[in-house]
Structure to design on (93 residues):
């Protein structure tokens, strides 16, 4: 399962973009009928190798997860075991 992201920097200053890697406590996971864990990332670094996004620019990256069942209708996307960031009730088409 792949989810494509776009981080848009609409501020007047450069920002650092990073995320947890597979197996780390702050890695993304999908919650549905079960938990589906992050298996890979492209286009973004970890907190030691963050990517700078200049003002008024964006960064596209992709997160790869264990496959979710094809009949899944709604998922929650959570970043980290402490639920530091997430989106709930994502309706899949």
């Amino acid at each position: 399962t792949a989810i494509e992201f776009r981080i848009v920097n609409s501020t007047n200053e450069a920002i650092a973009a990073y995320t947890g890697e597979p197996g780390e406590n702050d890695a993304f996971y999908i919650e549905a009928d079960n938990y589906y864990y992050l298996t890979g990332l492209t286009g973004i670094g970890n907190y030691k190798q963050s990517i700078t996004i200049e003002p008024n620019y964006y960064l596209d990256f992709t997160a790869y997860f264990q496959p979710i069942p094809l009949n899944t209708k709604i998922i929650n996307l959570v970043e980290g075991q402490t639920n530091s960031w997430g989106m709930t009730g994502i309706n899949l088409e």
The chain is about 0% helix and 50% strand. The chain has a mean pLDDT of 92. The beta strands are 2-8, 15-17, 28-31, 35-42, 51-53, 58-65, 74-79, 85-91. Residues 16 and 52 are 5 Å apart (CA to CA).
